[in-house]
Amino acid sequence: MARYVLKFGGSSVADPKKLYAAAQKLAALHRAGHQVIGVLSAQGGATDALLAKAREIDPDCGGRELDALLATGEQCSVCLCAIALQRLNISAVSLSGWQAGIRTENRFSDAQVIGLNNDRIERELNAGKIVLVTGFQGVNDDGDITTLGRGGSDTTAVALAAFLQADFCKIYTDVDGVYSADPRAEPDAVKYSMISYDDMLALARSGARVLHDRCVELAKQQHVKIEVLSASGHLPGTIVTDGA
């Protein structure tokens, strides 16, 4: 039995069909006897819509209340995915960042993950459930919801993989791996089968949007091997690891 962390981006859970596809990937691993943690982003466009609502009230809004509002997008995703899994006769539980015990520093909109009180996740896994955790968020020492900034769901997945000692961390996106350039703009772009943390960091900092640099930095620090792959395909993706 292995332990998997699977992260699905906003475009990968944007509608019921895609949510069911994500649920099927989670279910397949669970049926094979593995322990499975899913990390979900808000459905495509949901965070922007929530931010727009807040700015209708106050164009300069921020801080605690905005973080609490934006965090609801991911909560919607994990609840819907849990419903889909239950429809597939798979036992699943959705957890918000604070329920999962993801601890962050005391700042809003761009908080760093500093630890995990993982009793709840372990308890649910040992009960035979798929655990679905909201990406992009945690809780600070005051008990307030905090968000992790751009790429926050990827960071959540890597942090959980590290803290829970997962065997695999797979990040599903709308591309089938990491390329030397944007394949939609450069037809001759080369897909990497493997890339080092340092080279991935260089790509991220030069504008590549596949993984955020904070996520890669954390993976490097914690020695978490990441596979970036397409949510809609079945081809191997790109492994991000030490000294590739």
Topology:
Elements: E1 3-8, H1 16-31, E2 35-40, H2 46-57, H3 64-87, E3 92-95, H4 97-100, E4 102-104, E5 113-116, H5 119-126, E6 130-134, E7 137-139, E8 145-147, H6 152-163, E9 168-173, E10 194-196, H7 197-205, H8 213-222, E11 226-230, E12 238-241
Parallel strand pairs: 1-2, 1-9, 2-6, 3-6, 9-11, 10-12
Antiparallel strand pairs: 4-5, 7-8, 11-12
Helix pairs in contact: 1-3, 2-3, 6-8, 7-8
Order of strands in the sheet with the most strands?
A: 3-6-2-1-9-11-12-10
- Oligomer class: single chain
N-to-C SSE string, H for helix and E for strand: EHEHHEHEEHEEEHEEHHEE
Largest sheet: 8 strands, mixed
Helix content: 25-40%
What would you report as the Rg, rounded to the nearest angstrom?
17 Å
The class by helix and strand makeup works out as alpha/beta
Return the CATH class of one domain: Alpha Beta
How many H/I helices? 8
Distance between the termini: 27 Å
Question: What coarse outline follows from CA principal-axis ratios?
Answer: globular
Mean pLDDT: 94
Task: Indicate the proportion of strand residues.
Answer: 15-25%
The name CATH uses for the topology of one domain is Carbamate kinase
For the record, the CATH architecture of one domain stands as 3-Layer(aba) Sandwich
Number of strands: 12
Poorly predicted runs = none
